[in-house]
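Fold it.
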Amino acid sequence: MKNCIDIKNPNECCGCAACLNICPKDAIVMIENEVGFIYPKVQEELCVNCGMCKSVCVFNKKGIGENKEPKVFAGVINDRETLKKSSSGGAFSAIANVILQEGGVVFGAAWEKDFSLSHIAAHSGEELEKLRGSKYVQSAIGTSFREAKTLLDAGKLVCYSGTPCQISGLKSYLGKDYENLLTVDIICHGVPSLKMLKDDLTFVSGKEIDELTDVKFRDKCYGWGTKGSITTKNKRIKYNAGTSPYYFYFLKGEVYRESCYNCRFPSEKRQGDITLGDYWGIKTELLKKLGDIDPDLGVSCVLVNTEKGEKWLDTAKEVLSLTVSNRKSVEKRNGQLIKHSTPLPEHQSLLEGYKTNGFSSFKAGYKKHTKDHIIRGIKNLIPSKIKRKINDFLSRS
């Protein structure tokens, strides 16, 4: 009987690549399925049946964090230029910069030249730029877990950021706690595939991937929100749910990998030492406590889950404006903190259509949502300050 990982049900693999990293014979590769989601494949001629890949699989384990009830903050980085480049309030940059200043290394997701997304190690502020900003697609872990372990074993300070399942995969692979490791997870809704994204980028831009120079899912030139841009050599193109089938279906939660609808990680006991996200729906009273900030440039919610996380947040306080909040306040607009996404009616038909007809099935479905696009367009015309006043009024009534 083979003692190696064998994924029978796609909703029982998150693609974290812990199995690939632990394999002593490099017998595991990550392979795309028909719609672009990655899964481990064992090369039987190399496998020695050691069972290590099965032992680290996060879906074979309990799957939730063991951390305590978090301390919760609203936060905004003090450096305005960094804030403009950040998706929300720049809390990640504040923490990551402290790690670099202490001689550490920061791991996170970065675009490759062909707009694939991979986890890389940043050793400098210049390299950290690549990790900044939201990327609404699954990143390839590659062998970054091994790279992180090598650095940790050498006594190097390491900050590893990722989705909760990626952080869980890292911890499972490492097999022990490292005092010199800081883990940062994000509030995650779910991940579509890179194949879907690349199809969408060429559709929205009208260009081939190699003609694109930048992609931002969240571009602060349009304010704090879910409006991004695609940049070519000659122009910047709006990239949001009103222009992109991919973005639209991402926000609806229709095109995530199957494991996202079976996610084991939404819990008040988080995977990372620190959890970061957008403080959507933040109330005016809380904004005032942050001092002289521009809320239209974004605010982070920061959940501190461990003493180690608290230590590093304290170190970052010189460059980060913080005020105390609570988990219930954050959860109101970040439901994925406590529950996983649910597949909606179009999910299966979209994926089946994509298998058969490719991206044209997304375009056809997208056109049927004219009413949604009109409503979203009208909402986008309302200034952010007015929206906050409306939300504050509704929350009190």
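Residues 64-397 form one domain.
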